[in-house]
Amino acid sequence: MIRQLAEKDREAVLAFAGDRPAENLFIIGDIDAFGFDSDTVTVWGDFDESGSLTSILLRYKENFIPYARNIDQLDGKAWGDVIIQAGPLRMISGLKTQVGKILPYISRTEKGKKLCFYAKREDDLPLNKDAARGDVKMAFPEEADKIVQLRSEIAEFADSSEDPSDLQKNMEKGFSRTYYIEEKDEPVSVVSTTAETRGAAMIVGVCTKKGYEHRGFATGCLIKMIAALKAEHKQPCLFYDNPEAGKIYKKLGFSDIGEWVMVSY
After folding, report:
1. Rounded distance between C-alpha atoms, residue 178 and residue 221, angstroms
2. What is residue 55's three-state secondary structure?
3. Are the beta carbons of 200 and 235 closer than 8 angstroms?
4. pTM of the prediction?
5. Which residues constitute the signal peptide according to the record (predicted)?
6. Residue 153 belongs to what domain range?
7. Whole-number Å distance between alpha carbons of 94 and 239
């Protein structure tokens, strides 16, 4: 049985999703930020005959993310019907195996599909600090503009529309943090987080300015970030689609959860 969830279901939903904080980073983060009664977020749950949750679906604006502990208990047709009936649809995202069960029942024309690897680092892994650096700084919220400026100069982020004021607000609220290395009073390498929850954090925006590559700057920033998150028992996770970047992350202890797909309409 599928029904829309409410505040009274918070404990059950967070217990259901919370045992995999990296996989459910966005679901947990959106519930923490918006709750169950806002226009921005809606959460549904599918229950078995004993009243236990078997899968959930979260809507953030026009974007949907499904999750089931057991893939065999995810009813693709039922969730496809919920998504279609919910109104405007812009994107469905999540682990490829789970989203794949829903896609055949979405009667809309796909605009695009992006696939990347999703990786996490287990909290109990030791951190090799041989490549740690003493010149890594934590950015203040007021420095958001220069962090965004650096990323705008990197080809990989050329199409990004990151707003310094949004980054600043997220840093002030504790949803994001940034570590960086500077040369000549300007950042040359940065690493940020986004969507931080009580149990996990998404690492994003890893980049180094042209001319400063291959000097261990990004690795140094990553080690500082991982150490900070580890101290708070927050599991680091990240997306990547570049095999070379994947090699760096795996040297630092990240392992693939699976493939993450984003299907736009």
Report:
1. 9
2. strand
3. yes
4. 0.88
5. none
6. 129-256
7. 12
Q: Which tens digits make up the pLDDT trace of 141-181? A: 999 999 999 999 988 887 777 899 999 999 999 999 999 99
**Nearest residue to 69 (alpha-carbon basis) of 85, 45, 35:** 45
pLDDT at 16 (0 to 100): 97
3-class DSSP assignment, residue 263 = strand
Q: Are residues 47 and 151 in the same domain?
A: no
Q: Are residues 55 and 152 in the same domain?
A: no
Residue 122 within a domain: no
Rounded to the nearest 5°, which phi and psi values hold at 36?
-110, -5
| Residue 73 per-residue DSSP state | G
Strand-strand pairing, 112-120 and 255-264:
antiparallel
- Same domain assignment for residues 252 and 133: yes
Rounded to the nearest 10 degrees, how much is the dihedral formed by the CA atoms of 153, 209, 194, 101?
80
Place of tokens 């009936």: 85
Report which of 25, 70, 36, 64 is spatially closest to residue 202, judged by C-alpha positions. 25
- The per-residue b/e assignment along 177-216, b for 16 or more CB within 10 angstroms, e otherwise, is bbbbbbeeeebbbbbbbbbbbebbbbbbbbbbbeeeeeee
Question: Which residue is it, tokens 């009580």?
Answer: 198
Residue type at position 240 = Y
Of the CA atoms within 13 Å of residue 256, those in its CB half-sphere come to: 13
